[in-house]
Specification:
By secondary structure, the chain is of the alpha/beta class. It is 48% helix and 15% strand. The structure holds uridine-diphosphate-N-acetylglucosamine and uridine-5'-diphosphate.
Amino acid sequence: MVNALDMTSATTRPIKVLQVFGTRPEAIKLFPLVHALDGDSRFEGRVCVSGQHRGMLDQVLDIAGVVPHHDLDLMQPDQTLDGLTANLLTGIGKVLDAERPDWVVVQGDTATAMAGALAAYYRKIPVAHVEAGLRSGDIHHPWPEEVNRKIVGSFAALHLAPTETAAAALRRENVDPTTIHVTGNTVIDALHWVIARIEREPTLASGLAGLEARFAGKRIIGMTTHRRENFGEGMEAIASAVRRLAARDDVAVIFPVHLNPNVRAVMNDRLAGLDNVALIDPLDYPHFARLLDICTLMLSDSGGVQEEAPALGKPVLVMRETTERPEGVEAGTAQLVGTDPDRIVAEATRLLDDPAAYEAMARAHNPFGDGRATGRIVELLAAR
Ligand code: UD1
Ligand code: UDP
């Protein structure tokens, strides 16, 4: 029998939400939710980082001021998908047993998101999936992310879709429509936050001044690349396209190289020492926002960059065969170019040499959200 006192405590106990993440992009897209839950007395916000990434994760935790309650510190050099996944499942499982949250929140499609959600499902803890419903329709592009997010989508209790396109993809998979909500993508919330921080404290993003001076008068191409399906041949092809573009004397490439050894080995081997190419370590988020600001265009296979570049009106040539983010392409700010070096060079050259082609792409669009996704997610977590 429940007495009156028990009922009071049951209704006033804050909702315990455990966010589980482990890589740079997850941290960028979830820190606004960490901040929001910390400032809301309806919730007890908890954070478990897997440490799937180390340095690149810590860069985000530092700037966002997030101090995790649990850090599994799992990263191994050149880790394998199966070894990583096994460690994630057992590590996160122990944290869930200790914390017993009301909700587990995961973001996107990484191994941490998939294993975190699965460990919660094994304990019948409801999962809220941020950035739900992205689909390329090809299980090998991006690999293994397409399957990771489908796994989470098959049992999440709350599907937080960034766009109507993503929500429609979930409905096509017969997900209960009452559990699908279009919130916008929290990446835009994060971008607004970091831009406001830089406005208040410009030195947070002033570390590129030396490169900006070295490349004064040249047009900057910003680069990122890291997709597993591009390892080997794809990375070689991308490097050869960059070599050809950097042979122009009116262009410079600023390339913060992902810490994955499969990326670094190729890029160091093929691009180090070129006059017009700066191979640098991963930038923290304020400096990456600065790179987005000063560049003429981006060359990238990253998911997050496909969302940020349109928001800032920067054309992005997406070095992938397919995208689960068609909204940027439909808005005209992103273009799929694959990894064929001839195609990459031709499309970049067109943007550099044809002002009309450039102007047609370089318009700010926000198909991924209005910067208020986090608030919507908070209310959905509170309501259930
Ligand atoms: C992971 C995600 C991918 C996401 C990407 C974002 C999976 C399977 N992959 O890919 O979905 O788009 O992160 O960047 O979840 N490393 C470091 N320091 C770091 C980070 C990585 O040294 O801070 C090196 C390590 O050798 C590590 C390797 O990179 O083993 C690969 O990291 P991993 O997280 O497995 O793969 P990513 O390619 O980063
Ligand atoms: N990013 C960053 N520093 C860098 C490169 C990227 O802070 O040197 C940010 C970028 O702004 C975006 C995110 O990292 O928000 C993208 O991460 P990544 O490309 O590693 O992963 P993906 O988005 O492809 O999963």
